[in-house]
UniProtKB/TrEMBL annotation:
The keyword Transmembrane helix applies. Keywords: Endonuclease, Hydrolase, Membrane, Nuclease, Transmembrane, Transmembrane helix. It comes from Alloyangia pacifica. This is Predicted 5' DNA nuclease, flap endonuclease-1-like, helix-3-turn-helix (H3TH) domain. The chain crosses the membrane at residues 12-30, 36-59.
Amino acid sequence: MTDMTMQDGCARKCWIAAAVIGLVVILFALGGHKGFLAALLLGLLATGLLGSLFTWLSCAPVPKLAERSPISQLTPSVEGEVPSVPDHAPAAPAPLMSEPAPVVEDTPAPAAEETPAAAPAEAPKAAPVAPAEEKTTPAAAGAEDEGGSQPEALAQPRSGEADNLKEIKGVGPKLEQLLHELGIYHFDQIAGWSPAEVAWMDQNLKGFRGRVSRDDWIGQAKVLAAGGETEFSKRVEDGEVY
């Protein structure tokens, strides 16, 4: 039986085994509620892949080993026996006489020039420290800061009697006392504040920031300074507030 016949028989067996497995795949696919066409495609795909794999693994020809050389060519020659040289081998060329190499006298190498050592780098001088700027504080009266300028203050109320600043909506007993500490005793003082002075008061009323602008002290103070009344001031005079 030739190698070709054996390979054909091996390939036939491999494809038969692959076809049986493909049939099993079709049956499993049909049992898994797959369509007939899908089951058939799966079976054919499994048959083709497994048939090629089985044929490649089982039926591929095994490479033959190269012929070994005769033992006589591998064994060394007997000691003392000179190997024969073929007649047609070219004769070895006569060695050429080499000229003697010229003698070079040893000459002392020039001494390396001494280079002066680099001078040490001077340490950078520290920059002079600028003197710290002295903080200045504004004066008590008419001082200006980022929030505006402080309104002009009175050392004491005129005629020894202050206006009832609580008639201004937003000014309670505590805030009235704070205004007295800042030298504010009368309605006309508040009515004459400039925008910068209003900004200063909004920033410096501790615990009541923004109250001047929010409650419109200027508008209320102008009415009260002119001898008029507001709805809130009437309630204060009637004792309904505070």
